[in-house]
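Render Thyrotropin-releasing hormone receptor in 3D.
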Amino acid sequence: MSDFETYKQSIGNETVVLPTVETIALGNQSAITPESDYQKIIDVAFFLGKYYLWVVFAVGFPGNLSTIITIIRMRSLGSFTLYVVILAVVDNLAIGVKLLFYQILENKVNIATSGCRIFYFLGNFMVSYANWVLVIMAVERLVAVKYPLKIQKLMNCRRSMLALSIVGSVIAGVYLPLLWTVYFNEENRFCDYDGSAQLLSFLQWANISISAFIPFTVLTVCNLLIVRVLKESFRVRHALRSMQQTVALKPKASFYKYDVSVQRQVTIMLFTTTLVFVLLMFPLCAFKVVDKHWKVRNLSNEYAAKYLVNQLSYILCDSTHAVNFYLYFLSARKFRSHFLAMSSCATPTRAASL
């Protein structure tokens, strides 16, 4: 692939146009030539961009499918398990739509303007919605940790579905302009924007804000608050246990009667998932912040390095749709036991739920 041709990245990524240079012959020299390692770096970036989604698909699709099957077989549908199933479904849709659209662009298939609009809308919507499902999970878990005795009254499947519907409607509304501003470029065989520069700038920043900046910020704050609340609850629990031992209360008369085992596992499971999400999303957020201030010269090694960093940041961002099952497996004992029992066609020794 030529280092000077236009390279269209797939859904969720901004279009990156490598510079087209008109060389002026001066004897046997050209007026402008790439620096020594420019081509090598660009080739690496193109190679990663061409194949990384297949790796994400190979790792993420079966993992998300395993999550769905495991949760359904647990037969314990609460608000949290509902979020886990929907997140796995949306993650697989995000991976599938993005990979399919990437292949369409790569092979220059004529999908017409309607096809471009549908793929752009669905791709951006699925990527952003998956991240916001995780945000809703984190907010609910923060409430559960802060008010453990009231969470059953505050949250249920009906209210969870309402929250998911409202958030989904808002995200869909933000991406609606894509349904009339995107068209299929017949000459170059790719999808392009047909709108004002102001609208294009708005869509780009709305996309990066909804899919990355806001979820990153909210999840970071939620994790910090969960850690703080847990520290306070541990101190209170220790004081109550000391009081119980002092007055010689019987276990059934204890102030701390409810079972915290399941809630602890759910909290650890979600905290691990959101922490990994924040770590994987941070490079993209950081790159977008410094992008406008990172000035590079065309055809320089630094220009190629900047493009490679951009590509790597999107690889890490897309990986968030592929790793959740493995995080659940490592951090949640009950989820792990159910999955292993299902894989070996055995029956769990005791009923367990998330």
